[in-house]
Amino acid sequence: ERSYEYIVVSRPEPSVLLVTLNRPKFLNALSSPLFKELNHALEAADKDDSVGAMVLTGSERAFAAGADIKEMKDKTYWGQINNLRKPLIAAVSGYALGGGCELALMCDIILASPTAKFGQPEINLGVIPGGGGSQRLIHAIGKSRTMELVLTGRNISAQEAAQWGMISRIVGEGEGEVVKEAVKMAKEIASKSQLAVQAGKEVVNAAYEMTLAEGLRFERRIFHGLFATNDQKEGMAAFAEKRNANFTHT
Ligand code: CO8
To answer: Pfam families, per this entry (predicted)?
Structure first.
């Protein structure tokens, strides 16, 4: 355990880790020290058997307004979030711009409050997205809309992001609603077989890297592999016996 300066880590449920970005004065601009702490906390939770799923959020005003423009030097620390085996849910309120939008896109599921604003304003700084935005947006919202965001730097509302399929859905009105909903979802995910959850995440993500034929073979192989687990036997027995499954994650 260590204490953090730029993030707040809590356990709103025994099985859920909540990470709150905490540089409110700078709209959670993603500095290297912040990113180091974020990576440290997420990696520790990924290894912690008591954590089933994670939620990442910011403040009401900003999820994150981008990489720290005033710093912008060593940016080699983004990759690690992609290596997490456990699901990470983004709960977005306010600005998710530039690196903040890219950080949300690195998460497995995005929930947003009605105040959320997404965008890739790098073009206004004389650069382009550098944290995967151009590539991940293509998968999420298609070419024309990605081009529009990347080339004009315009922000889109939560409403547009939902219509465009970039986020799962818009949650509630009240302050903190989106975090509550994300924690609820994380708790539900954490109640499943963690072997199946991690397998599900792995095969969905494989679609980014593989052809359809390769992806179908990969899915089939992982699916068959799960039949060697106790959780598969328990899950199917519980269904037949009309009771809740008691997964042991083995
Ligand atoms: N970096 C550093 N500081 C920031 C950032 C940022 N991205 N965003 C806001 N801040 C600071 C402001 O400078 C201000 O600080 P101060 O009080 O010392 O002046 C404070 O936060 C509050 O911000 P504002 O006063 O500007 O608040 P407003 O409500 O007026 O405006 C905006 C909010 C519209 C969000 C505005 O702050 C803004 O435009 N921010 C910058 C958005 C942006 O351009 N983001 C993209 C950054 S580039 C990037 O993310 C590239 C990622 C590359 C990843 C590479 C990986 C390898």
So the answer is: ECH_1
